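Table S2 (continued). Query chain:
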Amino acid sequence: MTIEPKFGTKSAYEPAFDQPAYSGEGTDYIICYVPRAGSWLLCDLLRASGRMGIPAEYFNQVVGMPQLAKRLGVTDNNTIPLDEYIHGLKKNRTTPNGMFGVKIEPRQLDPLLKLRAITTHFPNAKFIYVSRKDIVAQGVSYEMAFQTKQWQASPDRREAIFDETRVRKSIETIARLAAEWEVFFSLHDIEPYRLDFESLTADPHAICSEICRFVGVETDHKFSIEKSDFERQGNSVNDDWVRRIKDLAAY
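Corresponding output:
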């Protein structure tokens, strides 16, 4: 079972995070992410400012998109008309200052590109690319989350089993997804704002303040992980797996 991502103790897709109905012109930004790079932490930090929309993963067809489409009343015979869905999202998840944010990973791009949904609905969007310097640690984290189905910190974390082949494949998946973003940026002449997990966790206020300026938002909000309900999942087990996979890869 895949667990819905949360802001604090509530699902990111609950009505509690809906905004007053918005219908004017606005500003959009797209967080382009590779798994296990802190994208949900970034979303929570930006959301807490009250001026950066409610950024979340709205185009995940397994978790998020079906629930929201049903709640917004835009399902049609178990299908989701994309245009209507995006209209509903922007109406309900745009903050009063006109900001709307969404996070997307490469495997969610195809349906959007085939319908030219980004060009149609986010024509002037700002792009933010969040990655991680240490892709071995990122791949280890991805494999652990995939095995346990726990993508955010949980007090009852299940045990994952180290498997060299699986960990290698996870690292390769991370590298492939990162490369797909670079191809996308090059094909569309996009210069995203780039940040990495390491910098975000070291100085979240500086990074988030720069992002706000990048998208044209003024705020004196103090961005702080301590104020966030997110907890870092990595622990000594992650470190051990990193050491083991590197030892096995010795040349």
